[in-house]
Design a protein that fits this description.
The complex is a heterodimer. Chain A is an alpha/beta fold. Chain A is built from 6 helices and 17 strands. In chain B, the strands form 2 sheets. A 5-stranded mixed beta sheet of chain B has the order 2-1-7-3-5. Chain B has a two-stranded antiparallel sheet with strand order 4-6.
């Protein structure tokens, strides 16, 4: 089996300013399935084709942004090993008890140098949808409700010292670099895309002066046509669109960037390509940074580098 | 639908705003510029303004960008205020600093 260790992005915990507006957006417009609420008032969602209990956790707060981004690992033994190796590497970790997040086992928290909190966990309850496991139909009513992404796919985070972030993800967590954008000096990385699987990215970072910022949490759709349908649904619901529908040069994904009702950017995208860990990373140079991000416009919009939560 | 006039003290320009749309939306839908446009939903802070005169309805906005003390001094995010009278406004938010910071020390952003 090729895929071991860190398996995939498992959850994103997002701060929202108004839970009522947020639940309307995430539940009805984005079309995620609400799967629970906890004693802290957090609201849990999963996408229709996900197999685990939840992937999105909303918390009402007085500022927007991301609390933490979690990865599922293949076993408790791997969780213990990665915790020890993270500490040996020199990063601070802490444990969050099982059950703090609904149906989720113990989590190991890592404060990475970009200021973000990354979580690792081995155990989470299964999605309660036997109709999608036994003699499964290719789609169901939940896959047609709202934008209805297939899954939480990745996140793009902004913070300082991304070369050190890459070093940790590669040396300790077993990720590999799939793509990068270099700055004017031809050496310093402006942005990095990292995979723990054979996706074009499972997490990405852009160099930014402020730590612990969220650029976007991304949701996967099947096709370009579904991306266009997502744009229609966004406009029908007066959702604030940042860019698109268009294509990224990096990852080749067809994409829309838009904002949830608290100003957290999200992406709905399709496509991309499959990667392997022995491949050399693809590199975009400073003179083509516009095409790297927005392949058709071939220019950045100011919001790409500056609008974060 | 009532209309209010918003005066921008820095440029001397004015903008007709409905009393149902937020200030940023009133600007954007007419194709006008002047206030930087970010998330449009109170989270990112780039459309920050200071209301120097007049009254407006305020919706929830990120405390990371408008503190309690600032709120008392009229600071607000333009995407979260709806004029209820004519307003006098100073634009605080700026975009365009990011390219400056990527050209400086990449480790610290200083």
């Amino acid at each position: 089996m090729g895929m071991t260790g860190v398996l995939r992005p498992g959850h994103a915990a997002i701060r929202v300013l108004d839970m009522k507006e947020a639940t309307h957006f995430y539940g009805e417009v984005l079309g995620l399935i609400e799967v629970g609420r906890d004693s802290y008032g957090r609201v849990y969602y999963r996408a229709w084709d996900e197999r685990d209990h939840h992937s999105i956790v909303l918390r009402e707060a007085d500022s927007a942004g991301i609390d933490f981004f979690g990865f599922k690992v293949d076993s408790v033994a791997t969780l213990d090993r990665l915790e020890a190796e993270t500490q040996a590497y020199g990063l601070k970790t802490s444990r969050v008890p099982a059950g703090d997040l609904l149906q989720t086992g113990e989590r190991v928290r890592v404060e990475i140098v970009s200021g973000h909190t990354i979580e690792l966990y081995a155990e989470k309850g299964k999605a309660n949808s036997p109709q999608m496991v036994d003699n499964p139909p290719p789609w169901n009513s939940e896959s047609e409700r709202g934008i209805a992404p297939i899954r939480l796919d990745h996140a793009l985070l902004y913070g300082p010292d991304i070369e050190k972030v890459q070093d940790y993800f590669v040396k300790v967590l077993g990720f590999y670099l799939t793509e990068q954008i270099l700055m004017e000096d031809g050496k310093t990385q402006l942005a990095i895309w990292l995979a723990c699987s054979n996706k074009a990215h499972d997490i990405a970072f852009v160099r930014h002066h402020e730590p612990n910022k969220l650029h976007h949490v991304s949701f996967l759709l099947d096709t370009w046509e579904k991306v266009l349908r997502a744009a229609d649904i966004m406009s029908m619901n007066k959702i604030s669109i940042d860019m698109g529908p268009t294509r990224h040069g990096v990852t080749r994904g067809t994409t829309i960037y838009a904002f949830d009702p608290s100003g957290n950017r999200f992406e709905t995208f399709s496509g991309g390509y499959q990667t392997y860990p022995d491949w050399d990373p693809l590199t975009w140079t400073w003179d083509e940074v516009g095409a790297a991000v927005y392949y058709h416009d071939r220019a950045l919009n100011p919001a790409f580098l500056e609008v974060v939560t | 639908m009532g209309k209010h006039t918003v005066h921008f003290v820095d440029t001397g320009e004015s903008l007709a705003c409905s009393d149902t749309d937020n200030l940023l939306r009133s600007m954007e839908k007419l194709g006008r510029k002047g206030i930087p446009v970010g998330c449009r939903n109170g989270g990112c802070g780039v459309c920050k303004v200071q209301v120097l005169g007049g009254s407006c309805e305020r919706r929830v906005m990120s405390r990371a960008h408008v503190g309690i003390d600032e709120e008392a001094q009229g600071y607000a995010l333009a995407c979260r205020i709806i004029p209820t009278s004519d307003l006098s406004v100073k634009v605080i938010g700026k975009m365009g600093r990011a390219f400056a910071s990527v050209h400086t020390n990449p480790s610290t952003g200083e």
